[in-house]
Write a structure and sequence with these properties.
This protein is globular. The protein is of the alpha+beta class. It has one domain: T-fold (Roll), CATH 3.10.520.10. The protein has helices at 23-40, 48-54, 64-79, 96-113, 198-222, 240-245, and strands at 2-7, 10-15, 119-123, 126-130, 139-145, 148-158, 164-169, 188-195, 226-231, 236-238. The chain has 6 helices and 10 strands, in the order ββααααββββββαββα. Helices cover 36% and strands 25% of the residues. The mean pLDDT is 91. Helix 1 (23-40) packs antiparallel against helix 4 and helix 4 crosses helix 5 (198-222).
Length: 250
């Protein structure tokens, strides 16, 4: 069964090759996304994070779940040397770069808890999988061509232990990532990262888009990831691991 829902400002797709997946299961997944959006969205005036941004609530007074996500984001800022940051240039705390991945992770945990062994969650380009589809030994994940969003660059075979892939780019939302490297003809317009967990994939896709080729080289040395990048010039680059995962059946 494939179900879709609108959440967190994007579309979520849930593919569960099990006829037992029902409306109650879908509601459980929706509840995970809605709960995090109500707490972290800066587009909701009464969200906890919006209250912090306005100065109505201090970070020290915030809920434990919010402070926990913020602490995780600060850890990533440190480990990436600032290529990933939970702060906007004006100092406002913005956790969009990690909350969506956390929601995908938590939704997957709920599916496992409810007894589903195979599934694919795709939320705005953040993809997390378990098991395999009914007719294949891997999930095939399409990567959009940023130069022509009606076309695919390639499809990636995703299977354990590589259970996650995330894509960050500027083709759809414009320059929404704060870059630590000035944009140039060689900087990236899209980055896809495959990893064993969705938060690592999502954070590092954003960090590599921000930090460019310099940080990509650091990241591939420091973390166990596979990377696909598209430069402003249109040049496509893949790490060896990503090349081997390109689907022969796309």
């Amino acid at each position: 069964m494939i179900a879709t829902l609108r959440t967190m400002g994007t579309v979520a797709s849930i593919d569960v090759p099990d006829s037992a997946f029902d409306a109650d299961d879908l509601a459980t997944v929706r509840g995970v996304f809605d709960g995090l959006e109500q707490r972290f969205s800066l587009y909701r005036e009464q969200s906890e994070l919006s209250r912090i941004a306005r100065g109505d609530l201090s970070l020290m007074q915030a809920s434990l779940p919010l402070r926990s996500v913020y602490e995780t984001a600060i850890g990533w800022r440190s480990s990436t040397g600032g290529a990933f940051t939970p702060h906007r240039p004006d100092g406002v705390i913005d956790l969009d770069g990690i909350v969506k991945a956390a929601a995908v992770r938590d939704a997957g945990a709920q599916l496992v808890e409810r007894g589903f062994e195979s599934w694919c969650l795709n939320v705005g380009g953040d993809v997390f999988v378990a098991g395999t589809p009914a007719d294949s030994d891997s999930w095939q994940i399409g990567i959009i061509d940023p130069m022509d969003r009606s076309s695919l660059l390639c499809a990636i075979d995703l299977r354990a232990p590589r259970r996650a892939i995330a894509t960050s780019g500027v083709a759809e939302r414009g320059e929404h990532v704060w870059r630590t490297e000035a944009p140039s003809s060689g900087s990236f317009v899209q980055v896809s990262v495959a990893a064993d967990d969705i938060i690592t994939a999502d954070v590092l896709a954003t960090a590599i888009l921000s930090g460019g080729a310099t940080f990509r080289d650091i990241a591939t040395e420091k973390w166990d990831i596979d990377v696909l990048t598209v430069a402003r010039s249109g040049e496509l680059s893949m790490t060896p691991g990503m090349k081997t995962s390109v689907s022969d059946h796309a």
